[in-house]
């Protein structure tokens, strides 16, 4: 009987020790996961801040096209191309750098075309570049809420998209011709 009680007591002691080790390991794992999530969130915020000049210049092009202002769109396109060229890709994860470099090069090319073109050609390049800027924000984050907007009538009803800081539709692809054509497709949050 004593042996049985001793065996049961010993078994309970071992089990309780193992449970506390398991709980400690679970707590450590939870802490590590939380720390990794916080680091990722901090990294995304830093990435979002890194592209602030790009987003600012992109939005300046958009606003100029909304207002049918070819000259302002050209200036903002040049500013955008410069901001894209200035982005330090090396600050981002190595596994993302090649894709980022490709996006930046294509978007920079569009910015350069916008800086040298007539307004209809500016709009074509702006629409194509909008997907690049959206892809850029998907990889590195953004410093503000953006609205992915879409007009189904652009480009002979093939449709076109752009990003905005407002839910209100102000169409840069048509300007005054069809200012309200479009709808919000997606909200891109911080």
UniProtKB/TrEMBL annotation:
DUF3347 domain sequence ranges: 54-144
Domain of life where this protein originates: Bacteria
A Pfam family: DUF3347
Region (Disordered): 22-46
Compositionally biased region (Low complexity): 28-42
Protein's UniProt name: DUF3347 domain-containing protein
Native source species: Marivirga sericea
Lineage of source species: Bacteria, Pseudomonadati, Bacteroidota, Cytophagia, Cytophagales
């Amino acid at each position: 009987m004593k042996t049985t009680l001793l065996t049961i007591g010993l078994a309970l002691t071992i089990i309780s020790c193992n449970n506390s080790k398991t709980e400690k390991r679970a707590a450590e794992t939870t802490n590590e996961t939380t720390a990794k999530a916080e680091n990722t969130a901090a990294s995304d915020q830093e990435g979002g801040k890194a592209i602030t000049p790009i987003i600012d210049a992109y939005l300046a092009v958009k606003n100029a096209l909304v207002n049918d202002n070819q000259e302002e769109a050209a200036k903002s396109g040049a500013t955008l191309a410069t901001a894209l060229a200035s982005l330090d890709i090396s600050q981002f994860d190595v596994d993302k750098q090649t894709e980022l470099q490709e996006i930046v090069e294509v978007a920079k090319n569009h910015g350069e075309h916008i800086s040298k073109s007539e307004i209809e050609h500016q709009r074509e390049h702006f629409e194509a570049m909008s997907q690049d800027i959206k892809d850029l924000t998907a990889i590195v984050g953004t410093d503000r809420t953006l609205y992915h907007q879409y007009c189904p009538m652009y480009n002979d009803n093939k449709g076109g998209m752009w990003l905005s800081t407002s839910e209100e539709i102000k169409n840069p692809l048509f300007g005054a011709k069809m200012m309200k054509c479009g709808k919000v497709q997606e909200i891109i949050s911080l």
